[in-house]
UniProtKB/TrEMBL annotation:
<keyword id="KW-0809">Transit peptide</keyword>
<keyword id="KW-0816">Tricarboxylic acid cycle</keyword>
<comment type="similarity">
    <text>Belongs to the isocitrate and isopropylmalate dehydrogenases family.</text>
</comment>
<dbReference type="InterPro" id="IPR019818">
    <property type="entry name" value="IsoCit/isopropylmalate_DH_CS"/>
</dbReference>
<feature type="signal peptide">
    <location>
        <begin position="1"/>
        <end position="16"/>
    </location>
</feature>
<dbReference type="GO" id="GO:0006102">
    <property type="term" value="P:isocitrate metabolic process"/>
</dbReference>
<feature type="domain" description="Isopropylmalate dehydrogenase-like">
    <location>
        <begin position="51"/>
        <end position="320"/>
    </location>
</feature>
<comment type="subunit">
    <text>Heterooligomer of subunits alpha (IDH3A), beta (IDH3B), and gamma (IDH3G) in the apparent ratio of 2:1:1. The heterodimer containing one IDH3A and one IDH3B subunit and the heterodimer containing one IDH3A and one IDH3G subunit assemble into a heterotetramer (which contains two subunits of IDH3A, one of IDH3B and one of IDH3G) and further into the heterooctamer.</text>
</comment>
<dbReference type="GO" id="GO:0006099">
    <property type="term" value="P:tricarboxylic acid cycle"/>
</dbReference>
<dbReference type="GO" id="GO:0051287">
    <property type="term" value="F:NAD binding"/>
</dbReference>
<dbReference type="GO" id="GO:0005739">
    <property type="term" value="C:mitochondrion"/>
</dbReference>
<keyword id="KW-0496">Mitochondrion</keyword>
<keyword id="KW-0732">Signal</keyword>
<dbReference type="GO" id="GO:0016616">
    <property type="term" value="F:oxidoreductase activity, acting on the CH-OH group of donors, NAD or NADP as acceptor"/>
</dbReference>
<feature type="region of interest" description="Disordered">
    <location>
        <begin position="296"/>
        <end position="327"/>
    </location>
</feature>
<dbReference type="Pfam" id="PF00180">
    <property type="entry name" value="Iso_dh"/>
</dbReference>
<protein>
    <recommendedName>
        <fullName>Isopropylmalate dehydrogenase-like domain-containing protein</fullName>
    </recommendedName>
</protein>
Length: 327
């Protein structure tokens, strides 16, 4: 059954259609990239086999990719994987390999990707390969659906909220420098164009998915100009959607409120770093990183990536948590 479901999902993506965000747990630790806005399906070979880009990545990624290939083989899915090994921690990353991956993704228009871990030490390049993939494909909107699983009891049950994060600027702009010895400056970039774009995406999402409220998460009381601009843009966009209730909340209070009463939230929109933190906090409310799906998308470009909502620990590789059952 799971093999058939995976096969149908991937073939549907290959043909240019969207698939439900809520997928089997074992595929959520992967990224699934589907290039869209193309009038025709990508060409199949003479034997009706479609090519799909595969990037195993690090940690649990390679063994999950192996499991996916076994499932697809058992389900007789007409897919041939074009595999690339792109890893910073395993010293298998370069600009040439990155370009090869991007070319393959754009050609095949469907890709499966594991997490590419970023090393802690500085080796002369600030922007990670994960970040460069997002920027080159302009995957500005990260959407994480936090939803309780049937039969999986947690402190808060029947949760259903969505976290939308701008992921191409903010604290993750990769702009750091040592101004004088012992003094490092990290630049947080907030622009009107990208703030309005992510706010509009959040309100459009709420409208299309029957959501009733959008909450902007910020720290404008301290970062008055940067987060102040983000908050101003959200308020401006909110005026264009009178049927959607709009609120704003400070990031630290948001963390507390999510733990105490997450039911008050529906759709949350926020800058980059806050979204990374809130994604992981919210995942813990429904069972952890392995049960929360996500996607990175850019409606104006031909690519959208299905992925795990939060990070899976590297130490899970080779252990039973990396082989969760189908939900």
């Amino acid at each position: 059954m799971m093999a058939a479901a995976l096969g149908r999902s991937l073939v549907t993506l290959v043909k240019g259609a969207s698939v439900p965000l809520w997928q089997p747990v074992s595929t959520r630790a992967l990224s699934l990239t589907a290039c869209r806005n193309v009038p025709e399906a990508p060409p199949a070979r003479a034997d009706s086999t479609f090519k799909v880009t595969m990037v195993p990545g690090d940690g649990v990624g390679p063994e999950l990719m192996t499991a996916v290939k076994e499932v697809f083989k058992a389900g007789d899915v007409p897919v041939e994987f074009e595999e690339f090994h792109l890893s910073e921690v395993q010293h298998m990353a370069s600009e040439e390999k990155l370009d090869q991956v991007l070319t393959s993704m754009k050609t095949n228009r469907v890709a499966m990707k594991g997490k590419i871990h970023t090393p802690m030490e500085f080796k002369g390049e600030l922007a990670s390969y994960e970040m460069r993939l997002r920027r080159k494909l302009d995957l500005f909107a990260n959407v994480v659906h936090v939803k309780s699983l049937p039969g999986y009891s947690t402190r808060h049950n029947n949760l259903d909220l969505v976290i939308i994060r701008e992921q191409t600027e903010g604290e993750y702009s990769s702009l750091e420098h040592e101004s004088v010895t012992g003094v490092v400056e990290c630049l947080k970039i907030i622009t009107r164009v990208k703030s309005r774009r992510i706010a509009k995406f959040a309100f459009d999402y709420a409208t299309k998915n029957g959501r009733s409220k959008v909450t902007a998460v910020h720290k404008a009381n301290i970062m008055k100009l940067g987060d102040g601009l983000f908050l101003q843009c959200c308020a401006e966009i909110a005026e264009l959607y009178p049927k959607i209730k709009y609120e704003n909340i400070i990031i630290d209070n948001c963390c507390m409120q999510l733990v105490q009463n997450p039911y008050q939230f529906d759709v949350l929109v926020m800058p980059n770093l806050y979204g990374n933190i809130i994604d992981n906090l919210a995942a813990g409310l429904v069972g952890g990183a392995g049960v929360v799906p996500g996607r990175a998308t850019a409606p104006s470009t031909p690519c959208s990536r299905r992925e795990r909502g939060t990070r899976l620990p590297k130490q899970w590789a080779g252990t039973s948590p990396t082989r969760p059952p189908c939900c």
